[in-house]
Amino acid sequence: MPLACTLAVALTGLEGQLVEVECDISNGLPGLSFTGLPDASVLQSRERVRSAVLNSGVDWPHQKITMALLPADLPKVGSRFDLALALAVLAAAGSVPANSVGRAVWIAELGLDGRLRPVRGVLPSVLTARRLGARRVVVATANAAEAALVSEVDVRSAEHLGEIVGWLTGEGPALPPVSAGDPAPDPAAGADLADVAGQTFAKRALEIAAAGAHHLYMVGTPGAGKTMLAERLPGLLPLLDDAESMEVTAIHSIAGLLSERPQLVRRPPLQAPHHTATVASLVGGGSRLARPGAISLAHHGVLFLDEAPEFSPRVLDALRQPLESGSVVLHRSGGAVRYPALFQLVLAANPCPCGKPALNCTCPPMTKRRHEQRLSGPLLDRIDLRVQVDPVAHADLFDKTAGRESSATVAARVVAARSAAAARWKATPYRLNAAVPGSILRNGPWALTSEVLRPARHQLEKGALSARGFDRVLRLTWTLADLAGRTVPSVEDISEALYFRTGQETSWAA
Fold this sequence. Notes:
Distance between the termini: 83 Å
Shape: elongated
Structural class: alpha/beta
Helix content: 25-40%
Low-confidence stretches: 506-510
Radius of gyration: 28 Å
Largest sheet: 5 strands, parallel
């Protein structure tokens, strides 16, 4: 028949849309033309598709071929449409049954020899197909395991276009359904908190950060253990639930970071970019449609910036909006892309460029001030916990037992605290204390008494706290109460929260 239609998926960030690939073959000058906003990689598919068809032993129609990618106002980016384009041409030419190709979604790049090559973003593509009612998806064999992570979809895979043609015409064996692999066991927590010597105060801050999903800033001399502490934070966090795991895995799929044996990402991810990272690498970037950056790859996990003052101030200030909204919207020439970016930020810094303890520091006062000012006030105002990490004492370094709680022990307390918070906020859209708006904490049934609030209000009145800082102290206070097993925070809880926020000893007695 001269007209046929197949299905593909166009991705804009994590959001996908089904694309109908229509092919019309008519009399006229032989050639292949496109409509429907194809980018350069789609236009270049002319020769890939033609060579793949011929090298699969199928005739190429020497007529005028018109391809329409619908909806026509949606940009089509990438080589993921190759397989759908080839089968649309073959169906229009009568080489394969048209009714069989129109009921499936076809996602693969084609090599000149007809081999099906993997593409990025297969997982969110299959999720889109399922959401929009498609029940069969055909991908390259290299993408089969990833596609099979999505339930309720009939996934088939092939190595070569000729296999698909034989399956559709009945002249070859059927492509067997791809079954999901065995579920991966719960991943290990990684580096253990028991490896960190001493640092009782910093470990307490790390536990609070994990329990309430609070941001953390650590300042200390080199070798005190700041990096070791930050790397152990993901091991204190609960495993991701199914929805979170699917979302995080989809982001890694778009970034091309899934392994050859893909599994759902269950452990909260850790991203630790180098201090030379650019804005585009951190928040996401690209020429036409932006790809996810480190903040999105750290979604539901931890973004650790070691040597934070060495990052460009422009890079650091780019974090301010995602920290508030939990997502980032990137505008490029090909359109706007939204990526989720709900992460815990952990900053680590030396107290000055020389990194020596205060008594031995040789930095001039202006140099120290310039070093401190590389982290802007608006960024630091969004950090809940600020901790001074002192050098490890000799006795702590060689003591193998004192204060060495394992990650599993601390993680159990974190789970209990998060469960208490989830039960408290079950009537709201929130589950973590760090996400609860200040308006809820200052008013209604969760408002604390004047006696409990007195230390924080005193700090607010004398300008030591901003309005945002006051709300973040309230969030910290509820987390401390959850860790202590209290249903209502006490004066001790808010005083400790103030100390972690301001670093002032007087906060305990304010």
